[in-house]
Amino acid sequence: MSQGNVDVARRFLEHVDRTGEPLWEVLDPEIEWIIDPTGLLAGTYRGHDGVKEFFERLRESFDETHVEIDDLIDAGDFVVALCRTRVRGIGSRMTVEQPVGWVYQVRKGRVVKGRVYFRPMEALKAVGLSKQDAHADF
What we know:
alpha+beta, Nuclear Transport Factor 2, Chain: A, six-stranded mixed β-sheet, 3 helices, 43% strand, globular
């Protein structure tokens, strides 16, 4: 069952990388979108309106955003996406690359919860996995 969940996460992340926009068709209308408390845009965003707010805030801070997938790990109802994000600040023009771990909870082909961790090991631990379960170096 979970390969479909991995495909949902891959489609979402590839779409964000290509367009800078969420792939709305795979986000549940009641989604809970959580950004690590250590992040610039930290917080909990609820529903499509919340995700839209997050992406608007992201565009206000960064004029380029890229996501490179290093590994997608099937964890049942969850998918762990180990990625590298690269952003360029609007004011500073400085580019920063950050390893991240996303945990997506998927139900019936839709992401119902997404949480980003700025320490990829925390994403693995959140679903009961360890570094040995990953195929990516971080």
